[in-house]
Amino acid sequence: MKILHHPNRNDIHLSSVLYALSDPVRLSIVDRIAHQGEQPCSAFTTPVAKSTLSHHIRTLRESGVVNVRVQGTQHFVTIRQEDLELRFPGLLTSVIQAYKISMNED
Amino acid sequence: MKILHHPNRNDIHLSSVLYALSDPVRLSIVDRIAHQGEQPCSAFTTPVAKSTLSHHIRTLRESGVVNVRVQGTQHFVTIRQEDLELRFPGLLTSVIQAYKISMNED
Hints:
2 copies of one chain form a homodimer.
Chain A: H1 14-20, H2 24-36, E1 39-40, H3 50-63, E2 66-71, E3 74-79, H4 81-87, H5 91-105
Antiparallel strand pairs in A: 1-3, 2-3
Helix pairs in contact in A: 1-3
């Protein structure tokens, strides 16, 4: 079974997390799994090509924002809620709240 | 007097704010003016060239994170605290708190 690299909790850096969250597509992915729990990559209906989506998921994984579990040919994505909360308390919650505000304006 | 462009409060976008905050030098600038109030650009002792510093300040200004006031040959920088708080409540506070945590580890 293929195991993807994830940074340890203490190697999660604030600037990388903020960068990972600074893209509208990545924000929409994070918002979805924050509300609905683990999702297969195929569940994300974004306006981008499959390879671009893979790149976005990789950016989120390498920054420490999400965990990606490989099962057969599918990749399942969850938020690293506990790690992020222990590392930077309240940060993800405030970003998701800000995302909700920005979405309600459109 | 030269007046620099600043986005209106409602034109401040979450992804741009997070991108502006996703760089360690820009984070250090924001942290400093958040704690010490308005500062001239010359007060920022960063390990980057003057032109790079100008670029960082511009990124912060164009995203809506800071206000830059021109007085003679000096540029004075403040956080757009009220605008950011009204736009995305609690976001900047949680980022600055996370920055403090990450700094205490070094």
